[in-house]
User: Fold this.
Amino acid sequence: MNTNSPLETLTEIRSMMERSTRFISLNGLAGVFAGVFALIGAAAAYYYLKLNLFEPSEYNYLRTGVRDSEMSFYAFFFTDALLVLFASLAVAVFLSARKARKKGLKVWDNMAKRVTLNMMVPLAAGGFFCLVMLYHGFIGLIAPATLLFYGLALFNTSKYTFSDIRVLGLLEIMLGLLSSIWLGYGLIFWALGFGVLHIVYGIILYIKYER
Assistant:
């Protein structure tokens, strides 16, 4: 005999509907860690390039042509970005998998596949576009492009997960557009978008859905 109260029954029904229509294994702490890693990566770039935080950098301007002396910068840029990306993905996968196991959910279900597909298409297109710009020497537009395509990926994925992600995507797009206007401050906008916003929204998601 079922002794659940009507409120408990409604709660269970709502939980089942959320599992079937939304990816709820997303962990807010993963966003916090991703933001911290991004800030560390941005700080390393500023230290490596010996930049002044409040002065525009020549590496962020729109320029064509690549000098041989800049090859070390490109090598550092890729290494720094890849380390931030892999560290963020590793923590996100670990925390999301742990959250899924606690809730009795599959780590790699149909909803996770939908989220991954809708996230990866804009990101892959953006990554290829950034490589093309780098090839042609348009350094100043790389930071704005990464923010724009990442924001579009978040906005595109938000329908399958928490609605808060849509607002985060719009903010990333806004920062990307602003960064395309003030080209000399690309790293600052990049740190704000991938660092500060991730930390803020990670904390919001954690408090709102996991506490």
Notes: The radius of gyration is 20 Å. The helical segments are 6-21, 28-49, 71-102, 110-136, 142-157, 164-181, 186-210.
